[in-house]
Amino acid sequence: MKKLLLICLLISFSCDDDPVASDTTAPTVTITYPVNNATLSAQTNVSVNVVDDSDITSVVFLVNGTEAFTDTEAPFEYSWDVCALTEENATILVNATDSGGNVGVSSLLTYEVDASYDCAQVCGGESLVDECGVCDDNSANNCGQDCGGNWGGTLVDDECGETRFNGLTNANCE
User: Percentage helix, strand, coil, to 5, in the chain?
Assistant: First the structure.
């Protein structure tokens, strides 16, 4: 009877203690925007899809091989100021690390960069300096020439046909 009890105890302890499997699977990382070989002409949000069976601890965006930004919260995105680049072509690679320390790597995507800052220092913006030296993106409010040919000037023709500063008129037109 003692032998039977001992055998039952051994069987129950050895079968119920399954070791916890460790995470050895790297995350799958896909850059979803912008698409490969796109031409970038303004500030661009780089979007990434990361799939894994455990929590993602960090997503690192590498621009031309140099770490540019680390995101630790979904959705994983990077606001890329392409106007700051000095090259005409650029690459993005993204690494994602899960809570098990596994690292997944995206495909290397390549882009053509055709972007610059406008007069308001907006990447890909449309503001221009008008004839009066004002930087804005509203062509309807650009200054005009006064009757003396001065951009933004205040000269007007008075009732006698004389060119005067706005608000000053000649009362004796004879």
Answer: 10, 40, 50
CA dist 28 to 57, 59, 89, Å? Answer: 14, 11, 26
Q: How many CB atoms lie within 10 A of CB 26?
A: 17
Q: Which residues contact 145 (CB under 8 A, 6 or more apart)?
A: 131, 151, 153
Per-residue confidence (pLDDT) for residue 173, from 0 to 100: 42
Residues in the chain: 174
The Cα 134–Cα 120 span in angstroms is 10
Residue 98 burial class via C-beta count within 10 angstroms: exposed 0-12, middle 13-18, buried 19 and up: buried
Summarize the confidence of residues 149-153 as an average pLDDT.
68
Instruction: Give the strand pairing for 109-113 and 89-98.
Output: antiparallel
H or E, element range at 3:
helix 2-16
Contact 98, 54 (CB under 8 A): yes
Q: Which residues contact 72 (CB under 8 A, 6 or more apart)?
A: 57, 58, 59
For the whole model, what pTM was predicted?
Answer: 0.69
Mean local confidence (pLDDT), 1-29: 63
